[in-house]
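job 3f2a | input accepted
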Amino acid sequence: MSFAKLDTLGRKLEAIEHAISILSADEATNMPSGGGEKRAESVSTLAGMYHAQITAPEVGDWLSAAEGESLDGDQRLAVTGFRREYTNRTCLPADFVERQVETRMRCEQLWRELRAKNDWAGFAPALGGVVALVREEAQLRSAALGLAPYDALMEQFDPGNRAADISPVFDELKAFLKGFVPEALERQARRFEQRPLKPLQGPYAINRQRALGVDMMKAIGFDFDHGRLDVSHHPFCGGVPTDVRMTTRYVTTDFLSSLMGILHETGHALYEQNLPKQWSHWPLGKARGMGVHESQSLFVEKQVARSAEFWEWAAPAVRDHLGAEPFDNWTLEDILAHVHLVERGLIRVDADEVTYPLHVILRYELEQALVLGQLEVRDLPEAWDEKMRDYLGLSTLDNPKDGPMQDVHWPSGALGYFPSYTLGAMMAAQQWAALEKAVPDARDQMRRGQFEAINGWRRDNIWSQASRYSTPELMRRATGEPLNATYFIAHLEQRYGE
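job 3f2a | predicted structure (498 res):
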């Protein structure tokens, strides 16, 4: 049977993918600085091997034959998913893939060195090389998939996303937020006049912060037999479902920065650890795009970990781990004032949930222009600054490390990824609304530190479904209606409005 041949190939591909994932995670956490050149060669060679195997001529024959075999429902879905992967892979020559992977890795390594030095002039040529290859990739994919170039890139991260559908929604959300952010800040200022914000005193020892984070991860449901927590320049969740590699970064003066980063990445990790194991070597068994993945991380960080109910349970644990003295005479309201703090800032990963979508929309608009050749890398600092001033009233013109050098996504070539963050926030709010209908006492359970029912709903409706359905169909089945921004806007108005 050709299906059996595809199954065997899938296991070989999974082994290569496993090696690439762990090498990449190690490169970001433990690799010595002198190991970069050979690591880039190793990963690019493995990527080339993966590409060569999945695009071999016989694979197309196996797929055609399998599509005519007598298969059950899941097997047929598995072949359909493999066909999609094959089509996306065969439009890129193997030598192009190796060249692109190596260029991206070298750029990312340079980014880690030069961002700290605020050296845009030294970094821009490397980023320009990545963008040039992304444009070439977009054209290759566009021709093969019959999609516009930027849509063809988004298809790799979140199948079904189209700029023509996203842009109007983002424009509506942007217009709402540009008015809502000043209003939220004004309401917050009035509250602080009556009850001033208590400063986070610190310092909070890193080992204590880590212990707190680990306990929170365990409570939320992270399986440490199949994952670990490390430190990196940029928080991420990588590895493979049976060996998830999660990272954070610590600030000794602000425990919330690391804790919220940990909880965000734990949301990603829970999705990976609960995907259907029997299909792990097929595209069917993998996460359904980055929009859904971000909905899982934002569900934990925003819907759960920034709720008052969560902090009724978590506040004592924070005091136990970090010491009672820094929180002497603090009330729940004092903690929530920090958890719900709205603040214009330059850093996306540190942004609150009100201003965060504006950071994403800025990047979405700029990367579209980069891909389409309407903007060149050399002009990014000025273009970034113009939008940052317009959306958040801040400037990065003389501070590129907190502007176009801020994120790892562009150095690593992940253009087309950013829309997933805000689409994920919308999905998370809509999923929570549906969950509360199914589990009416979900908030009371959080007060007691109980997350089994909450995780159970997500396991049944999101995690176990993997890539069985398209993102729109997955959301419709999980929530009973198509994805829309109504629940996200209502969530913001309820938490940050009058």
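job 3f2a | DSSP finds 20 helices and three strands in the chain.
job 3f2a | closed
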